[in-house]
Design brief:
alpha/beta; Glutamine Phosphoribosylpyrophosphate, subunit 1, domain 1; Rossmann fold; 3 domains; eight-stranded antiparallel β-sheet
Length: about 625
């Protein structure tokens, strides 16, 4: 949610900052703004709407685009409605300071009242304008430099933030800080330029060297002098570790596809391969995962595994529950991270907590991690972004290697998360002896075939388009699945809701009779996952119940299916595989259906309304 970009150096800042904002559009936002400093004046441009609207404003006056220093922001509204005034950047009342801010200042109202009592007035409804004036007040009262003023002000703040602050009286530096929201600093050659962003995508063509701030850290960025990092709470110096970026520019461009979502759906064969590459030695019957290998005893002796996540990651965790209990016979609980952290859960040192997040920055999941660690649990992270907060906060973990996922609606994140969970569950099953060695090797070989089977499914998009065209005007949809594919039904419904704004619900097929069956009529499309594994006969009965009530049935079946084909209005065939691996295939047609329905309805597929890619606030 929200995005920050910034630049200080020898280049013109405008194209760097504005293009950085475009790279961050995937995070979700409702307004945008930019400040450029030309050596004398801070030029501010901001507006409700998209970055393209901001460009139109700046193009009306070339002075607005001058300067070697700039900060920019895409805002997802929290305090104050989306409008021009509430958009960032915000200036202090003195006119000396400019700030961009991601996050929420929970005690802003108290701070605002104190500042009003001291003579401050406010133009916006935002917590951010309160923060920039608090910093200015501290700077004035303490007679200190900007970096110290930011530090002292932040000790009075309750909430979450990533900020970048500029003082026109000290035009060779920018101050950045973080707590609960990510910030990255790109380092140019010989410290002649620096880049600031919520993630590294805005500056990957300029530098491969990056510093990721940790929680409670503040960085003073000075031209020709480098980056000095301090702890906000105790003022201690921190070694600013420079890391090398692993992504490249090609990865975050559309590559000829109409949308990032479609590109990322088609990237899944490669993403799944990259996720298990080097981890599977099928002929030798070996799975190598350093994060698991080095902590094997903790997994094998665990009383239970608790999986926490949000949204799509929670759905992947539900698949993980089936995997761990089926393959490794370890009890599993799957929790919404947002509920887990607030319901006083019972956690012991004998528990393993697996935290799943594509971005590695999900605020509720990070809070759940901290809670689990405070109770002595071993915490294992599954995320996609190298160097992210979850990767640093957990005791150990595994990356999904999906590559950058720009589309807000997760696709390859889901399948690669399931791939990682499958590998862990299978490895533990092998180590515990709960899964026979002969079956184990066969499972590995079948997993290696999944990418080619996904490629096979991606070739039926014309058939998917035809079905999408028929049902694009539906008002409600029902998604049904059983066993390993019940979470896929939930995920399929979520995808449709996210990008087409059609109401959809996922249910275990057997639960249909406990309420949802009342909704079924000739206008209700029902998407049923009915592969020939598990409880096939049971789900055929569920389909017959729908048909008896004139429901429209779109069934995902195993190639060669005869029985469901006779009943359903439409069938989509998937290649045969292990039941436990089937979610990697059954989810593909549902992703494509959601995509094509949204496109046919002229929706903004990559940036659906009200949503953000990384939910970095509660």
């Amino acid at each position: 949610m929200c995005g920050i970009t910034g630049y200080i150096g020898y280049r013109d800042a405008y194209p760097i900052v504005i293009n950085g904002l475009k790279r961050l559009e995937y995070r979700g936002y409702d307004s945008a703004g930019i400040m450029l400093y030309d050596g004398e004046t801070m030029h501010l441009s901001k507006t409700k709407g998209k970055v393209c609207d901001l460009e139109e404003i700046t193009n009306t006056n070339e002075k607005r685009k001058k300067g070697k220093i700039g900060i920019g922001h895409t805002r997802w509204a929290t305090h104050g409605v989306p409008n021009d005034v509430n958009s960032h950047p915000h200036f202090s009342q003195s006119g000396n300071l400019a700030i961009v801010h991601n996050g929420i200042i929970e005690n802003y109202d108290t701070l605002k009242k104190e500042l009003i009592a001291r003579g401050y007035s406010f133009k916006s409804d935002t917590d951010t304008e309160v923060l920039v004036n608090l910093i200015d007040e501290v700077k004035k009262n303490e007679g200190c430099k900007l970096g110290k003023a930011v530090q002292l002000a932040l000790t009075q703040v309750i909430g979450a933030y990533a900020i970048a602050v500029f003082d026109k009286t000290k035009p060779n530096e920018i101050i950045v800080a973080r707590l609960g929201s990510p910030i990255a600093i790109g380092v140019g050659k010989d410290f002649t330029e620096f880049f600031i962003a919520s993630d590294a995508s805005p500056f990957i063509e300029y530098t491969k060297e990056v510093i990721y701030l940790d929680e409670h850290e503040l960085a003073i960025i000075k031209l020709d002098k480098g980056v000095k990092v301090r702890k906000i709470n105790d003022d201690s110096l921190v070694d600013a570790k420079i890391e090398e970026l692993q992504m490249n520019l090609e990865q975050i461009e559309k590559g000829g596809y109409d949308h990032f979502m479609l590109k990322e759906i088609h990237e899944q064969p490669k993403a799944i391969t990259d996720t298990y590459r080097g981890r599977i030695l099928a002929d030798e019957g070996i799975i190598k995962m350093a994060g698991v290998d080095n902590n094997l005893e903790k997994f094998l002796t665990a009383n239970r595994i608790i999986i926490v996540g949000c949204g799509t990651s929670w759905h992947a965790g539900l698949v993980g529950e089936y995997l761990f209990e089926h393959l490794a016979r370890i009890p599993v609980e799957v929790e919404y991270a947002s509920e887990f952290r607030y319901r006083d859960p019972i956690i012991t040192p004998k528990d393993v907590v697996i935290a799943i997040s594509q971005s590695g920055e999900t605020a509720d999941t990070l809070a759940a991690i901290k809670l689990a660690k405070s109770k002595g649990a071993f915490v294992f992270g599954v995320c996609n972004v190298v160097g992210s907060s979850i990767a640093r906060e957990t005791h150990a973990g595994a990356y999904t290697h999906a590559g950058p996922e720009i589309g807000v609606a997760s696709t390859k994140a889901f399948t690669t998360q399931i791939t990682v969970l499958s590998l862990i569950a299978l490895k533990l099953g092998s180590e515990k002896g709960t899964y026979a060695k002969a079956n184990f090797q066969n499972y590995l070989r079948r997993m290696e075939l999944i990418p080619s089977k996904v490629e096979e499914l991606l070739k039926i998009d014309n058939q998917i388009k035809e079905i999408a065209h028929i049902y694009k005007d539906a008002y409600n949809c029902l998604y049904l699945g059983r066993g390993f594919n019940f979470p896929v039904a939930l995920e399929g419904a979520l995808k449709l809701k996210e990008i087409s704004y059609i109401h959809a619900e996922g249910y275990p097929a057997a639960e249909m009779k406990h309420g949802p069956i009342a909704l079924i009529d000739e206008n209700m499309p029902v998407f049923v996952i009915a592969i020939n594994k598990g409880h096939y006969e049971k789900i055929v009965s569920n389909i017959q119940e729908i048909k008896a009530r004139s429901g429209k049935i779109i069934a995902i079946v195993t190639q060669g299916d005869v029985e469901v084909k006779r009943i359903a209005d439409h069938i989509i065939e998937i290649p045969e595989t292990e039941e436990a691996l089937s979610p990697l295939l059954t989810t593909i047609p549902l992703q494509l259906l959601s995509y094509y329905i949204a496109v046919m309805l002229n929706k903004n597929v990559d940036q659906p309304r009200n949503l953000a890619k990384a939910v970095t606030v509660e």
